[in-house]
Amino acid sequence: MSADERRESVIRAAITEFARGGYRATSTEAIAKRVGVSQPYLFRLFPNKQAMFLAAVERCLADTRKVFAEAGAGLEGDEAVTAMAAAYQRLIVDDPDKIQMQMQTYAAVASADASGDHEFGDAARAAWLKMWEDIHLALGADAKETTMFLAYGMLVNTLTSLGFPAGHRVWSGFYDEARPIA
Fold it and tell me: Which of 89, 95, 149, 160 has the greatest count of CB atoms below 10 A from its CB?
């Protein structure tokens, strides 16, 4: 396996481990074990744990951006919103680590910022801003529509992360495509 392929394996493993344990509780040893390499080998590919986490954040958000872009391609307005919402629901059902990684990202950035480490959050914010810009363009560069789409998306993330089942009343105000897949 080439170094690039191994790096890709580490990023995928890091998404899973950080999604499940968060930044602070996840050890680089756990990531190395998941990949099947030694811990020192990880540090040939990444300078430190923070770099692994940020690579996982960037990949997670890039994968989410790709889902939105593919779903909204050639569509406008409500059709784009509906297709993108449905695609996101499929993503979080098919790959629940993606939503958990997003939630862990927000917690890790807030924690780092609170302790004075703003540089950590700058990279995550830049990756998230790319997603905002892609969604904004897909929705016709309408700031209100972008805000509403992302607000509903964050509520979906929160309710899903809290484990509310598909039929629970908290989902009743969502349009059908944004409700969880039962």
Answer: 149
Task: Please tell me the distance from the alpha carbon of residue 34 to that of residue 30, in angstroms, as a whole number.
Answer: 6
DSSP line for 17-30: HHHHHHHHH--HHH
CA torsion angle 69 64 86 76 (round to 10): -20
**Could you read off the pLDDT of 72-116 as tens digits, one per residue?**
999 998 999 999 999 999 999 899 999 999 999 999 999 999 999
CA dihedral 108, 111, 117, 121 (to 10 degrees): 40
Report yes or no: 150 and 135 within 8 Å, Cβ to Cβ: yes
Q: How many CA atoms lie within 13 A of 127 on its CB side?
A: 21
Q: Are 146 and 136 in contact (CB under 8 A)?
A: yes
